[in-house]
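As promised in the previous annual report, we have extended the structural survey to additional targets. Below is the entry for S1/P1 Nuclease.
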Amino acid sequence: MFRVRRIAAALFVTLAIAPVAEAWGPLGHSVVAELAQRHLSPEATAEMEHLLALDHTTSLADIASWPDEIRNDPNQQALWKETRPLHYIDFRDPSCVYVPPRDCKDGKCVVEALPHYVAILSDRSQPDAARLQALKFVVHFVGDIHQPLHGNFQNDAGANNYQVQFQGQGTNLHRVWDSGLLGTRNMDWKAYANMLDAEGFEPLPQPIAPLDNPYAQWAEESCQITRTIYPDGHKIDQAYIDANLPIADNRLREAGRRLAEVLNIALQNG
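The corresponding structure token record, generated without further manual editing, is:
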């Protein structure tokens, strides 16, 4: 527990002053993972590569969508059922203020899942296989918590039940934010990451008083964004894309920067 609190405290101090470098679909998760990997310390990179070697890769992007992919793996159905509620948080009040007993019953939400898996990842006494699995969840959940509709307060299953017209077809708003909006750039994940990385760093949002939990802050930020992203007339037109794609881009950048800081702390020695 001390280790978890130390990581959270270190994150809060570091990220309060650090500049910025689906949830999302595979594209968004790969972008977040790639941005983070580019800003890892040498020590964190070495430990990351040690763990990823178990999956015969050196790229965080290769494992970023694994927590979603297990839903289609017959051998992973128990794990999928156990972790499915951990990809999001449903705020129960439009204030977007995180109240754990109300918004995260029994710790089953992304805000509480992140410190749980960060603690496993940080613990060198854990088997490498357990730490690799934790790494996969941490990479994915940091992406998830920055997708605004994974922190919604509306009673519509994260806008999965909010139908819209997008590019001439019926879909739901959640899917638009998971992948459709990012897909309008017509880029693969590496080119997308290159574009965002080339824009340089911007200041991260300031800490929300009186929060001392960075993960809760990230969820509250997402919740606040959802106030403005429901389209008039249930139609996603070019004006909507022009207004909201920069918001999505910025959440990817924030997620990448914050994931790098999480991993730099969790993967350090000792």
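The first helix runs from residue 2 to 17. The first strand starts at residue 19 and ends at 20. These points will be discussed at the next consortium meeting with the crystallography subgroup.
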